[in-house]
Design brief:
Helix content: 25-40%
Largest sheet: 2 strands, antiparallel
Mean pLDDT: 77
Number of helices: 4
Number of strands: 2
Shape: globular
Radius of gyration: 15 Å
Structural class: alpha+beta
Strand order of the largest sheet: 1-2
Number of domains: 1
Low-confidence stretches: none
Distance between the termini: 27 Å
């Protein structure tokens, strides 16, 4: 079974990334060793650092974008605008993959 497809961004999976606990967060039971593997560790650590950086910058300034981080586009004035409205935090095997996205498909 492909756990990436099966789980996606399931509930609470962001917690170890937001707190820098990659590979040491015991809440996922029998799938820990399937999710947190050595072959994808670099990408997951990169993603965790990026998520913590964005959250810290947002807490400090109210703006998640800082030097060295993916630039955030301006939020649209109306909810009907087709502009990007949120970040997608993802990773490949070696690095974080971050982009702005829209909820309009």
């Amino acid at each position: 079974m492909n756990w990436v497809i099966a789980l996606g961004a399931c509930h609470a999976l962001d917690i170890p990334f937001n707190f820098g606990l990659i590979g040491s967060f015991p809440w996922f039971g029998g799938v820990d060793d399937t999710i947190f593997r050595e072959d994808n560790r670099l990408g997951q650590e990169s993603l965790s650092h990026a998520m913590m950086d964005y959250a810290a910058q947002f807490a400090r300034t109210g703006n998640p974008t800082a030097t060295g981080l993916h630039a955030c586009t301006s939020w649209p004035r109306t909810r009907w605008a087709r502009a990007p409205k949120f970040f997608l935090f993802d990773a490949n095997y070696n690095e974080a993959v971050i982009q702005m996205a829209t909820d309009v498909q």
